[in-house]
Specification:
Two copies of one chain form a homodimer.
Chain A (H helix, E strand, L loop, with lengths): L7 H15 L6 H8 L4 H13 L4 E2 L7 E2 L12 E6 L7 H6 L3 E5 L8 E5 L15 E6 L8 E6 L2 E10 L2 E5 L8 E3 L5 E13 L2
Parallel strand pairs in A: 3-5
Antiparallel strand pairs in A: 1-2, 3-4, 5-6, 6-11, 7-8, 7-11, 8-9, 9-10
Helix pairs in contact in A: 1-3, 2-3
The first copy, chain A, binds a DNA duplex (30 and 30 nucleotides) through helix 3.
Chain lengths: 205, 205
DNA sequence: TGACAAGACAGACAAATGTCTGTTTAATGG
DNA sequence: CCATTAAACAGACATTTGTCTGTCTTGTCA
């Protein structure tokens, strides 16, 4: 292989290692070699060690598949998690729904150990805060939430996204759209918090 | 080590492997051995292979650190791409900016072979379509775009998100907020399309 | 009690993988 | 042109790691 001047290959090697780490499968030196078509192991090793020298990677010498991202660097918190995307969520069926997801969406590892799931938004009731029908919300599963947080709640067998308001002795679920009315529920109301919205995604393509 | 009847150890082995995989560091058979204090490699291997047999793990035979979670199981990483998150993008500096990203965000593999990058939205000019300041937009890099698409364009050394309108002989960049005025540019205008917005993400937590 | 199975042990072998030494090729600058 | 340097190459060696064969121990059950 001819020489590749501008350190272009080096950057690609880093990107390759990064992707493999995100997939949870750290590469071997020889896997890097083969991916780039090097005819010598040392070619790959040279790039990898150079990346270690400049601080872009760290490694434990001698260990197999030992290259890692430096602590504190983005993406170093671990591999990407896959969050289950649920279709319809109905009464009590959250656990079942998670067993049989419609698909999986990748999420960075910065969200701690909390269980996550994803739902598609229906209706215009939250359009005032930029949550539109068809948007995907990523939800941290929890039974309770604090005043002002945007939550997914199960109201009469239907999952809905609303802003939670805790008023003296009762729970209110506020839409963010003047065309909709708040849902006001008494203390013994038939409402159940499924989780808190932590991210909103909208696909345009 | 005495025999541990109820398959209790097996479950712990699975938990250990899971933990290591979540940390991005698949364990070797001997690391499992040492963690549980087995005095023989085979003891660890037996548990691991049993977990493979019952479908709780998968592995590529012969490969070092080859145990993985089965595809489709929660926490298993799929074909995920990492998209570079750029800070400021200025004139002609897109390539350079991609060389030195602020971080990486995971994206599912359904976006084809197109080059992608991510930008943080500044300003309220697109709030009418639910794109708010602070949102992350994921952009497919391309030099041209069609009428009506939401694009990232470089106008006078500044990257901006707008809706593209192609009018007889001229290019218009329309905000989606009545408080802002469209940018109207002649045929020889100093505008450059950087790409088309394919996804919008907003982190709440 | 004795057959049986699961778990653990011991030691070895083989393949995968990291590491090293030295050489070659191509671009660059005096 | 020659020296210099980075990148790539070639081949070997050493360590890590996976895999195998056979034995021992302990609990279960007919």
């Amino acid at each position: 292989m001819a020489r590749n001047p501008q350190g272009h290959t080096r950057r690609d090697v880093l990107a390759f290692v990064r992707e493999r780490l995100a997939a949870g499968a750290p590469p071997t030196v020889r896997e890097v070699q083969e991916h780039f078509g090097f005819r010598a192991v040392q070619s790959a090793r040279q790039h990898l060690e150079a990346l270690v020298a400049e601080g872009a990677l760290v490694k434990a010498p001698g260990r197999a598949r030992g290259y890692r991202l430096p602590p504190g660097s983005p993406g170093a918190a671990g591999p990407v998690r896959l969050v289950p995307r649920l279709g319809r969520v109905q009464a009590g069926a959250l656990s079942e729904a998670i067993e049989d997801p419609d698909g999986w969406v990748p999420m960075d590892g910065l969200t701690g150990e909390h269980e996550l799931f994803a739902l598609t938004v229906r209706g215009e009731s939250m359009s005032g805060v930029g949550i539109l029908p068809g948007d995907l919300v990523i939800v941290r599963r929890q039974d309770t939430a604090r005043d002002g947080e945007i939550v997914v709640a199960l109201v009469r067998d239907d999952a809905t996204v609303k802003r939670l308001r805790l008023r003296a002795g009762r729970i209110e679920l506020h839409p963010e759209n003047p065309a909709f009315a708040p849902i006001v529920l008494g203390p013994a109301a038939e409402v159940r918090i499924l989780g808190r919205v932590v991210e909103i995604r909208r696909r345009l393509a």
